[in-house]
Amino acid sequence: MMPEASTPVDTERLIDAILHDVRTPLAAATGYLRLLREGRVSAGEQSEHVLEQAQASLRSIAVLCANADVCRRTDVVPRRNSVAATRIVDGLIGAIVTHDVTPDSAELPPNATVQICGDWSELCHLLGHALGVLARPRKNDNAGRVYIDGEQGVFRATASLPLRPGNMPRSAFDPWVYPGLTVAAGLHALGLAGGRWAFNEDDRTLCVELEMVTSSYVESPEERATR
Predict the structure, then answer these.
(1) Which CATH class is domain 80-214?
(2) What is the phi-psi region of residue 4: left when phi exceeds 0, alpha when psi lies from -120 to 50, beta otherwise?
(3) Would you list the domain boundaries of the chain?
(4) What is the pLDDT of residues 25-45, one digit of tens each?
């Protein structure tokens, strides 16, 4: 059975994660800008590359701040909205593929809807990135797998972590240890939306679930086009 998601804010872990994850991109951006200021890179492609790297480091800090803001939320919306399951699938996949992971998905009933509290598109963005970060390829390792399906009133997405070489120890799953608070933010948003998650240590998979309803009404192509 999946545990009920909880939404308390772990302030101490949040602060620790921010302090840990902001240091590397901040130091990188500072170093790149110092190279430009001191004229230690030639004009043209080399300086453009250094500037792009500095901007990328600053963007990662902006993402970290945005995820930290999500992690400290406690604003649970009591009312659930019904969103077409196909739209949730598309939203999740759009975020997952940016991490060099191509998800697989089962064909869901066209009349299936997912029950979500709050902004469904924001949830797809946050949760999709969390699943993508977990499954993305690591150094000397292939990507894991993300599979999306739904049955018996449950919408489910499962992310398997990449296989680790046999001589590397397996650590217990901790959503706070992944860079940028991406995983912690995605799972916290899932809890606020009324979902739940569990991690299987044996096969190294994270399973996230939301309530799904299948109605007898099927939306026509014309109605779908006007949404």
Answers:
(1) alpha beta
(2) beta
(3) 11-71, 80-214
(4) 999 999 999 998 888 888 788
Phi, then psi, of 198 in degrees rounded to 5: -150, 150
Out of 136-140, 207-211, 214-218, give the one with best mean pLDDT: 207-211
